[in-house]
């Protein structure tokens, strides 16, 4: 397992370009090639790189491509953060009996596209957050799961105590899943359910090439 628990330190000025060296595989014997292990399930470096590449390819085809890439310089970290959070949220929702159907996702996405001013605008908004177009359904699903979990917990997300109750529930699930992160990506904070200094956009309303770690 990855045991180092040092704090994450990444320069804010490190806006990375697409054509940078490949990430090295994890150096431990227990989980070679893993970026993280969540409840015994490996998130491999290759899977992480593929997700990052999807975003960079989509950003590169956008008229604002250069700016999008510069503004998402910590894409490896934020992407891994999201991949881990997906697992934690899915478990918390399942344990609470919260489910989301394909129809629910389609309806919620249509509403989001309308509010954003169209499907293209929504895609651009999420590219600004480092989310590729083919991941938008997952983001919408997460939002619905969080809403359902909050309802199950009777946690008003508009109030600090409600938000805290939601985070505490996710933190409990996170601890139970024994999230173990390759130290090259920082450390996972069970209390805040977040990777190092990355941001967690999933718990607020969604209205709004390879990289070196």
Automatic annotation (TrEMBL):
Residues 1-24 form the signal peptide. Coiled coil: none annotated. Keywords: Signal. PROSITE patterns: PROKAR_LIPOPROTEIN (PS51257), TAT (PS51318). InterPro entries: PrsA_foldase, TAT_signal, Trigger_fact/SurA_dom_sf. The keyword Signal applies. PANTHER family: PEPTIDYL-PROLYL CIS-TRANS ISOMERASE HP_0175-RELATED, PEPTIDYLPROLYL ISOMERASE. This is SurA N-terminal domain-containing protein. It comes from Streptomyces yunnanensis.
